[in-house]
Write a structure and sequence with these properties.
The complex is a heterodimer of chains A (about 120) and B (about 110). With about 120 residues, chain A is mainly beta. Chain A is built from no helices and 11 strands. Classes of the chains: A mainly beta (about 120), B mainly beta (about 110).
C-alpha cells in the first residue's frame, strides 16, 4: 500500500524558534497533501491543503505566516512552525492523496512540544 | 454542527464480543472512510466505501447512502483491536475529509 513518512516523529524546542516538519510520499506521487493538528482526545483538525507547485489553501483561523507550507515536489511537503509558542504544542499529521481518488494516506505524525 | 457524528464516543468490550460503531453524516459524499488510530498516533485506513458493504478479516463496514449512515462491525473482538476508530467523509464538493470525533474502543481480555 501507499506509504507516507514524516520527520521528525517528535521534537522539543524552545519558545521563539522555528520547527520544520517533512512529509514524504515514499511510493507514489502525491498531487495533494493535507496538514492536520490534533489535540489530546480530539479529532483531527485540517490546517491547510497543498497542491504541488501552488500555494497552500489554509483553513479559517490558521495563520499562514505562522504555519508555512511548501509543496515543492510530488513527494515532499513541509510544514514550518515559525516562532513557536507553547500553545503550538500538538500532534501534527500529514496525509497525501492523488488526483482522481478519494483516498488519503496518513503519515505517522510528529509530536511537537514547545517549552 | 459537525458534518459527521459518531457513536458511541467510548466503548469497552470483553474479548470475543461483537462490536458496532455507528456514523451518520449530513452532507452529500463521494466516499466514506473508516480509519483506525492507535495510541502512538499513527492512522491506518481500514475501508473506503461509496455503497454497500466491505469485509476485511474480522472487520465489516456497511453504508446506506439514502439514510446517510454507516456502521463498522468487529467480529470476535480482540485486545489488539483497542484503538480509536474514526469515521470520515469526502464531500462531493471537494477532496478534503470531514472527520467524526472518533470512538475509543477498549477490548478487555
Amino acid at each position: 500500500g501507499a506509504v507516507v513518512s514524516q520527520h521528525p516523529s517528535w521534537v522539543i524546542c524552545k519558545s521563539g524558534t522555528s520547527v520544520k516538519i517533512e512529509c514524504r510520499s515514499l511510493d507514489f506521487q502525491a498531487t495533494t497533501m493535507f496538514w492536520y493538528r490534533q489535540f489530546p482526545k480530539q479529532s483531527l483538525m485540517l490546517m491547510a491543503t497543498s497542491n504541488e507547485g501552488s500555494k497552500a489553501t489554509y483553513e479559517q483561523g490558521v495563520e499562514k505566516d505562522k504555519f508555512l507550507i511548501n509543496h515543492a515536489s510530488l513527494t515532499l511537503s513541509t510544514l514550518t512552525v515559525t516562532s513557536a509558542h507553547p500553545e503550538d504544542s500538538s500532534f501534527y499529521i500529514c496525509s497525501a492523496g492523488t488526483s482522481g481518488t478519494y483516498e488519503q494516506f496518513f503519515g505517522p505524525g510528529t509530536r511537537l512540544t514547545v517549552l | 454542527k459537525n458534518e459527521v457524528e459518531q457513536s458511541p464516543q467510548n466503548l469497552t468490550a470483553q474479548e470475543g464480543e461483537f462490536i458496532t460503531i455507528n456514523c451518520s453524516y449530513s452532507v452529500g459524499i463521494s466516499a466514506l472512510h473508516w480509519l483506525q488510530q492507535h495510541p502512538g498516533g499513527g492512522i491506518v485506513s481500514l475501508f473506503m466505501l461509496s455503497s454497500g458493504k466491505k469485509k476485511h478479516g474480522r472487520l465489516i463496514a456497511t453504508i446506506n447512502i439514502q439514510e446517510k449512515h454507516s456502521s463498522l462491525h468487529i467480529t470476535a473482538s480482540h485486545p489488539r483491536d483497542s484503538a480509536v476508530y474514526i469515521c470520515a467523509v469526502t464531500p462531493n464538493t471537494g477532496n478534503q475529509f470531514y472527520f467524526g470525533t472518533g470512538t475509543s474502543l477498549t477490548v478487555i481480555p
